[in-house]
Write a structure and sequence with these properties.
Elements (H helix, E strand, L loop, with lengths): L10 E4 L9 E4 L11 E2 L6 H40 L11 H43 L2
Antiparallel strand pairs: 1-2, 2-3
Protein name: Zinc finger, GRF-type
GO molecular function: zinc ion binding
Keywords: Metal-binding, Zinc, Zinc-finger
C-alpha cells in the first residue's frame, strides 16, 4: 500500500492533462492538499498515444454536446408525435389544456360509437328487407 507524505493511505487518481491523458497516479486523499506527487501507477505511454488521446477526448466531448442537443430536440418533437398519434391538435409550444385533450378524445369516442350504432341500424334494416324480399319471393312461387 502506498502512503502519502501526510501519513494517509494514497488514492488512485487519473490525469487528464494533454501530457498524461488517462494515466493513473497515486495522490493524497485530501482534496486541495499541498502534498507532493507520489508516483505513477501506469507505465509511461508511447509518444503517439500522448499525441492522439487528447484529440480523441476532445472529439468525444464534442459528440456528447451534440447528443445532448439532439436529445433536447427529441423531447420537443416527442410532444408532436404524441399529439399526432392521438390525433390531438397541437397548440404552438404545448397543448393548451389537458381538458382540451380529454374533450377531444371523448368526442372521438362518441363519434365512433355513433358510427357503430348507425352501422348496426343499417345492418338490421338490410336484414328486415332481405326477410321481406325472401317472404315476397317465396309467396309468389305459390
Amino acid at each position: 500500500m502506498v502512503v502519502c507524505t501526510c501519513g494517509k493511505p494514497a488514492v488512485v487518481k487519473t490525469s487528464w492533462t494533454n501530457r498524461n491523458p488517462g494515466q493513473r497516479f497515486f495522490g493524497c486523499p485530501t482534496i486541495g492538499s499541498n502534498c507532493p506527487f507520489l508516483g505513477w501507477l501506469d507505465p509511461p505511454m508511447c509518444p503517439r498515444s500522448v499525441d492522439i488521446i487528447p484529440g480523441l477526448l476532445r472529439r468525444i466531448n464534442a459528440f456528447r454536446g451534440v447528443v445532448e442537443e439532439l436529445e433536447e430536440q427529441r423531447s420537443k418533437y416527442k410532444k408532436f408525435v404524441v399529439c399526432d398519434e392521438l390525433n390531438v391538435p397541437w397548440y404552438g409550444e404545448r397543448i393548451s389544456h389537458l381538458e382540451d385533450v380529454l374533450k377531444h378524445l371523448k368526442n372521438k369516442k362518441e363519434k365512433k360509437e355513433k358510427e357503430r350504432k348507425e352501422k348496426e341500424m343499417k345492418e338490421k334494416e338490410m336484414k328486415k328487407r332481405k326477410k321481406k324480399d325472401d317472404a315476397e319471393g317465396s309467396s309468389s312461387n305459390f
